[in-house]
Every structure is written in C-alpha cells, then in structure tokens.
Amino acid sequence: MTVLEADARAATEEIFDLRRRLAEAQQAHAEEVRRNQAFSRIAAAIGAHQSLSETVQAVIDGGVELIGAQFGAFFYNVIDRTGESYMLYGLAGAPDEAFANFPMPRKTAIFAPTFEGTGVVRSDDVLADPRYGKNAPNQGMPEGHLPVRSYLAAPVKTADGLVLGGLFFGHREPARFDSRAETVIVGLAAQAAVAIERSRASEAGDRELTERRRAEERLKFALDSGRLGSWELDVETRAYDASDICRSNYGRGPDQDFGFDDLVATIHASDRDRMLAAMDEAIRTGGEYDIEYRVVIPSGETRWVHARGRAAVRDEPLIGGGVRRMAGVSLDVTERKRAEERQRLLLNELNHRVKNTLVTVQSMAAQTLRAASDLPAFREAFEARLIALSQTHNLLTEQNWESASLREIVDAELEAFGGRERLDFDYTRDLRLNPKATVAVGMAVHELATNAAKYGALSTPGGRVAVSWSTEPASPGTSARLRLRWTESGGPPVPPPTRRGFGARLLEKGLAGELSGEVRLAYDQSGLVCAMTLPLAALEP
Amino acid sequence: MKTLAALKVLVVEDEALVSMLVEDMLGDLGCEVVGPAAEIEEALRLAGSAEIDAALLDVNLGGRPIFPVADALKARGVPFAFASGYGEAGLTEPHKGSAVLQKPFREADLRRVLEGLAAQAV
C-alpha cells in the first residue's frame, strides 16, 4: 500500500467518520427537536384551561412520553365540601383498575419524600433500594401490583410549599430513568402545580358562581311567589334599581323608566313627606326602613304599598353620616288595607246598630211600662215585643242586613199566633223590604197579631186574619206605593178602644211617620181592619 | 234664656220607636214637640220656618246625614243637639263641639242637654 493509498484510505475513513458523526448529530438534533416539540405540546396541554382531572391526565401522559416510562401515576389530595381530605389518582400505561383494589399509598420510607415534598426519589432498581420494603403489612409492593423496577417520583408543590400530590413513574426494566429524565419530571411537576392550582381556583370560582346563581334563583322564586318586589338605591347618586314586580307595585311595566324621582312622584302627596323622612332616617342611622304609603299609579288608581329596607351591606360603616346603599322589598298591600277599612266601617256600623237597637229596646220598655196594668203584664208584653224585634233581626241577618222578604216577615211574626192555619195570605208573591222597613213592618204586624189574639179574630177558635197587598205604580202627583191590608173576620165585634195603646200609636203615628205613609185603623163590626199605604221608595232595599 | 216648660223642640228622628220615646220624654219634661220629622225634606222645612226654640237631631236619617238641617238651624240661630249612637265621633269637622246626646240616653241626660240649649235660646 503506497503512502498515497494509505492517505486516501485515511481520508476516506475520515469522511465516513464525519458522515457518521454528522448523522449522529443530526439524529441527536432531531431527537432534541422532537423532545422539545413534545414538551411544548405537553406544556400546552397542561396549561390549557381544563378541568382538574383533564390537567392531571395531561401531566401523567406527558411524563410517560417524555421519559419513556411504562407506567405513570399521579396521586393528589382533594378536599370536599365538608372539609374532608381524600386522595384521587390518574394513571397512564395501565387501566384504572390497576390500583382499584389497593389502599392509597401511605407515607412509607419510599413514599415519604414525595408526599412530604422533601425531594425527588429516583431509583434504577427500586427492589434493591434501601428504603424499599420496610413497612408492614406488605413489606414492598402488594400482590398484583404493576411490576416496577425503575422508579422516579417527584412531589407536586405550590410556590409556597403546599404539597398537592405526587408524580410517580415506573418501568419493568431497571435503570431506565437518567438524570435528564429527573430534570424533565421536576420541570413537569412545577408546571403541574401551577396548572392544578389554577384549575382548582377556577373550579372553586365556578362552584361559587353556580352557588350564587342558585341562591339568586331561590330568592327570585321566593320573591315572585310572595309577590314581593325588590329594589336597591344608591344613596349618593340616587340610582334606583327595581325588579319587575317592584315596578308593577308602582304601576310600571318592566320596560318603562322608573327612577327614584319617579318613585317619589308616584307616592300620594299626603304620604310623600312621611316616606322621605323615614328614608332619610334609615340612611342616617343605618336602621330599618319600614313604611306603608299610598301610591297613585299612572292609571290614576290609588294603591297601598308596604316598603321595607335597610343598608345594603349590614356591616358597612356609616360614611359621611349615612349608609351608601339601601336595598329592600315592596309589597302591594291594597287588598289588606281595603279589608282593614271595610272592617273599620263594619265595626262602626255594628256599633251604630247596637246603640240604635238599645234605644229601640229602651223605647219599647218605656212604652210597655206606661200601658201595663201590673208587672206580670209588663213582662209578658215586653218579652213578646223583644222577640218580635229579634225575629226581624234574624231575617235581616240572613240577608247580610240588606233586605228581608215581606212573606217571611208576616210568617215570622204570626208564627206564635197559629201561623198559616188561620192566615189568608198569597204566598206565591213577595216583596223585598229594606232593613228599616223590615223592622217597622215587622213590629206593626206583631202589634196587630197581639191585639188580634187578645181582643180580635185570633181570640176565638173560628176567627181568621187575611193579609193582602198590592203595589201601585207612580201616577201624576203620587209616587209608587204599597197597599197592605190586614183584615180580621170571625172574631168578636171590636169596639174602638177608649184609650190608644202602644200598638195603635206605633201603627198610626210611628209607622206612618217613619215610612212617610198613611195607616188607618177601622174597628168594623166584623173585625179590625188596618190599611197601610206606604211609598215604595221608603220600603225598597 | 228660656226654661224647659213649653220649650218648643223640633225632633228629627227616622225610627218610630225612638221618636216615640223622645216624644214621651219631652212631654214629661213639659216641652212641646214639633215634628217629629223622619225625612230630611220635612226636617229642612220645619227647621227653616216652624216656630221652634231648640232642636234634637238624629245624625243619620235613613242613610242621609243630617248636617244640612244643622246648618239651616245655625243660620236661624236656633240651638240644637245631635242624638247619635256614634257619639261625637259621628260628627263632621264643622260640627265637632256641638252638643251631643249619646244614644241610648236617660231622661236626665236629655234634660241636661235641653237646659243647655234653652240657656242659648232667645
């Protein structure tokens, strides 16, 4: 071999070697690029705004890929709503069931540095590691555990040192994880910590938002079903915000302008100063605002509103001598107010009636006493009159004190004197009388019946009474009127009384005067006749 | 200043039994009853022209307030008292302070009120 030949061979080998080294460098570079790309992709996946479990899965999958592990796991602590802490895990390279039957890892010698956050544990063969297999009951991996020889574990810690969990990687062959793998996993753990923290914060935020929405829905439901409107007032700017129901309490639709000035203008002029004073007081002291006032809504109708409120933030300090915001509710209480007013009027009316009835009874007692020959006679006549009066009240009470029927009045007053057996009355027709006429006609019929039973037709077995009536329409000069006629027959002849008793006085003067009509008593041979002519205007309900 | 004897008293009352009681009481006191009127129109007529020294007015006359009659009497200078189950609470503002006979009343109450009216009568 010549020198030339030797030179040529050396040069050729050099070129081969250069080519090989170039190829190696290119391959290493490609490997680096691939790894960097993988790292970027994994970092992006971890950093993507995902749920906690998705973030965890991206971390494990990424770790397995980057260091060529067969198995990857992430055990992490979760605190539930009741404050209980428990452990969850994510897996790669093995199905979820691989750990399903094992208890969660404890702080054994091999695991402690990871769960306590003290450092990375890397072992070329964990089975030969002095920290392995030191703890009861298993003295190493439990039966059925994934076959791990190469072992790499790193804690996942927040910036302020809180351990969130641990990343664990394994391979069934020894010595698979080098220091470069350790560096990669430490970097991954740091990224995971940031992503998990952010994901936890965002999930907590979501939870709080959902919780708030639910609370708001509950409040709205409660307000709606109670027809309660809600409002808020910025005291300084006078910005007033009212719910739809609140607006409707003031006669406004959801889309109509309704500011604080509109509110004040809607309040009844007589109640406005009182409302403003109450609001000022509540703002100044931070105390309760609680008021009922009238509002005149745009349709012109007057309604009653009950408004309540207080400082929007209870513990907000008073600023510049008052609260900054007020919030409260409003309720349409018109129906209740009307009911109260009706009740008040009814009580007044009842009191008036009771007093009037007492005077009536007083009068009956005085009149009866004047005519009575002795106390037993007084008692008998007085009680009978009291019961007659009471019966007219019964009839009126049945009809809400609005009217009573002539037929029922006659029936009620004659019941004690033989009733329908001895009475000729056309029961097919009827006429309704107002309360005053009911009492007057009732008492008149009672006096006639009492007289008939004592001296007239009802004092003998064969005697009868006919009560007939007709109405006459108005004619020029006279108004429409009722003609009511009481005719006795079959009794003893009745001479005119020597002295006018209570009954005759009540009929001829009282009834006639009270009902602006005319009452005539005729003492016929065949029996007493009482003819009443009463204007319908004074009788009708 | 007059005495109760032969005092002419207008009675306005729409309930027969009540006006009968008042008439009897007034009779016992020696007064002369004018009326009784059960209707506003009749009461107004008597208040405006009848020869009267005083008047006793039921506040509510068949659902209509008596106040026009009171005004007519005031214009004529005739002293009057209201008779009412409501007491003074049933009176409208310009008539608050007028003499009121609360129903039911005793003859002595009526006498006291009438003596007050008679003292004002000319």
In total, how many domains does the architecture of chain A comprise? 3
Q: Report the strand count of chain B.
A: 7
The major pleated sheet of chain B works out as: 5 strands, parallel
For the record, the CATH class of the largest domain in chain A is: Alpha Beta
* Residue share in helix of chain B: 25-40%
Count of alpha and pi helical runs of chain B: 4
**Helix share of residues of chain A?**
40-55%
Query: What does the radius of gyration of chain A come to?
Result: 53 Å
The spatial strand order of the largest sheet of chain B comes to 2-1-3-6-7
Which shape of chain B, going by the Cα principal axes? globular
Q: How big a fraction of the residues of chain B is strand?
A: 15-25%
Strand order of the largest sheet of chain A: 2-1-5-4-3
- Please state the CA-atom Rg of chain B, rounded to the nearest Å: 13 Å
CATH topology of the largest domain in chain A: Heat Shock Protein 90
**SSE string of chain B, helices as H and strands as E:** EHEHEEEHEEH
Low-confidence stretches of chain B: none
Please name the two chains that share the biggest interface, counting residues whose Cβ lies under 8 Å from a Cβ on the partner chain: A-B, 30 and 21 residues
Query: CATH-wise, what's the superfamily of the largest domain in chain A?
Result: Histidine kinase-like ATPase, C-terminal domain
